Amino acid sequence: MTLSRKLRETICAKLHVKPRQLLNRINAKATEAGITDRDVALLLLAHEQYIDVAKPRFAVPQNKLDELKEHLRVQKAQAPIAAAPPGTKKTAKGNLLQFRRLLKFKGKYPDVFYDRLEDEINRAYSDSKLPNAVLMLARKLVENLVYNLLQYKFGPKQITVYYDTMNRRAHDFSVLLSNLQSHKSNFDQDQHDMINKFLHMVYPFRRDANSKVHNVMEYLESMRQIRKLKIVEMTQILLKLIDRVK
């Protein structure tokens, strides 16, 4: 990275992380946002923490600011339509649906993008016709949280536990789960029960999610099936484990 030390120190202070942890955050942000330039990923991370990266004291080159601006423009253009006011949601026919929350963890996630993802999950959950959308988005949520858990626990020295260095991308969900199970002994003893409980719930969840993704003939028919998949419980366990290892 070529950006100023002052900017990196400011972001570290805002996120309450050390420089090495910041590097992990930058890599995760680059992967999540599809950004190849780590400088732009750092600027995006700063932007999401409401840091004005255009201030002269940060000495950010104009071409980097332009790249960030372009990424934000594309991101905004692709963003989903905002939800209706709390408590309501409009269907395509204009009918109002009761807004319901499956997840209530905003502000507790390891990265701000999860808050937006939770909003999308809850909007889909409010529409009884969208159980498969809930399932697909929840899979993205759980998979990324497992990635973050391994990332925080093992850090850059053991990056291959969670990251495929040869192909420069996060490991597949199945590999992440396998590595979590095989490296359970590296976690504190009092965390083993939580990991076991999570793995007991996540394997059926992953199996169902994969079958719905890869087979167009298979799909969920009601939100009752969503509630049986223990999405809330899995999310809660992962957030507790992440908080313990950060």
Q: How would you explain this protein's 3D organization?
A:
With 246 residues, this protein is mainly alpha-helical. The chain has 2 domains: 5-78, no CATH class; 88-245. The chain is 59% helix and 4% strand. It has a two-stranded antiparallel sheet. The radius of gyration is 19 Å and the shape is globular.
Jot down its keywords.
two-stranded antiparallel sheet; 10 helices; 2 domains; mainly alpha; 246 residues
Strand fraction: under 5%
Strand order of the largest sheet: 1-2
Number of strands: 4
Order of helices and strands: HHHHEEHHEEHHHH
Total count of helical runs of at least 4 residues: 10
Overall form: globular
Radius of gyration: 19 Å
Task: Tell me the domain tally.
Answer: 2
The average pLDDT value, as a whole number, equals 87
The SS-based structural class is mainly alpha
Largest sheet: 2 strands, antiparallel
Task: Enumerate the spans where pLDDT stays under 50 for 5 or more consecutive residues.
Answer: 81-85
The proportion of residues forming helix, as a percent range, comes to 55-70%
For the terminal residues, how far apart are their CA atoms? 23 Å
